[in-house]
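Support reply, case 0932

Customer input (verbatim):
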Amino acid sequence: MKKLVLLFMFFSFLFAEEHAKFVQTPYEAPFKVVVEFYFDEPEKIRPALLWVSNIIYVLSNEPYNFVPGEDIDIVVIIHGTEITTLVKKNREKYKDIWERIEGMSMYGVKFKVCAMAAEQLYGYSKEDFPPFVDLVPSAITELLHWQQKGYALLIPQIYEMKRTREEIR
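Our regenerated output:
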C-alpha cells in the first residue's frame, strides 16, 4: 500500500502544472443578490459600489452574457453614514457617487435607504432623496426579506490601505 501511495505522489508531481489554472465557474441565471451598505465613513460607499459594478461586469460579459435587470437582480440596502451621500443637498459634494448610482439604476440595481436611520439619526425625510432611491421602513427587516426571497447576502468589506501595492508585493 505504501508503494502505491508513493507511486501516486510521484506521478502527481510529475504531471503537476507550474502555475495556477483559470476555472470558469458556471454561474447561472437568475443571479439574485442583496448588498448591505453600513459604513462608518460616507466615502466608503465609493469602493463598495465597485463590488456591485464587479457583479454586473462579470455576469454581463462573455461567457455569461446575463442581462442586467433580467438575469441579474441586485438590491442595495443602505443604512450607515453613507446615507448622507444620497441626499439632494449633498449632490455636488458626492457628484461621482450620484452618477455611478444613477447609472447602476439604469441597469436595474435597486437602491433602498433605511427610513428609520435616515429620519431618526440624520433628520432626513423622503423629500431629501432623489427618485432613484427608495426609502424602506427598516434596513434590518429589508435585508431579511430579500434573503427569505432567495437573494444571496453580500456585505462589502472596505478597508484603508496603509501601504502602497508595490510595498506589499
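We compared this against your earlier run and they match. Two observations from our side: DSSP finds six helices and five strands in the chain. The mean pLDDT is 92. Please reopen the case if you see a mismatch on your end.
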